[in-house]
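debug: dumping io for the single-chain case to check the tokenizer round-trip. Nothing else runs in this session.
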Amino acid sequence: MLLALLLIAALTATGIGLSVLIVGELRSSSNIDNSIVAYYAAETGIEQALLKVRDGRQHTTLAGTISGEAPNSLTSLSGNLTSVVAGWKTDGSTASENTILTSLPKNKSAEIDLFNPDDGTALGIRSVQFTWSDRCPLIESWLEVSYVYWKLSSSTWSSDDQAVYKNIYPCGTTGRYSCNPALADYFDPSTIYKLRVKALYCDVDNLVISAYPNINATGNKIDISSRVNIKSVGSYANSQIALTASTPWSASIMGIFDYAIFSETDLTKKR
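debug: decoded output
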């Protein structure tokens, strides 16, 4: 009798354990399915936001695109998927950042506008600091910083004798894969700049770009309205997925940093 009771108890415990395990697996599987739907809802929000950015470039300002009149602004953009009860919203989108984060593969570059894109005014930038890391096994990475400039009252780029200014900064590792900060303190606070940062010799990881009002990267960081940072949150059942994307507000000016001149006669560069 005692043996039968022990056997029944063991079987009952085993059954309860298996039931808990099966229910947990079913719940986990359901959460995964819900997360997939939420992911595609968030992706839909990203696509809709990018469409708004494209239209905003043609018809309104950056500030108006981000936080203008609802429901057309990115901070009030929302919607639902038609086939399932899933929604998305992009109320976390911004246009101003005091620190730009990116990574660059070898020989790839990123352009940054150091001016207000809505009225073309200068941001009062005196210095820009770059920090990054790399994982180059044989050669260290270098950072090429190029820029062109113009005054608000002028219609010409830079000066006549040197249209594009370039400076190169080596990694100069301070530790394993960690590079020395590079400081560019040659900016005029009243001047408008378009900056290009390019990775040389190796991939550049964890690139951090910050602008300051004083030399030697001092003072409070200056907000740079160069990119639109989109955050879309998709929701379905009890699952939420957040996706982020960044896109330049102003179109890249092709050829301004890299160009070739062909001539049948000798060319003399003004010095």
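debug: round-trip ok. The chain has two domains: 11-93+229-248, 100-224.
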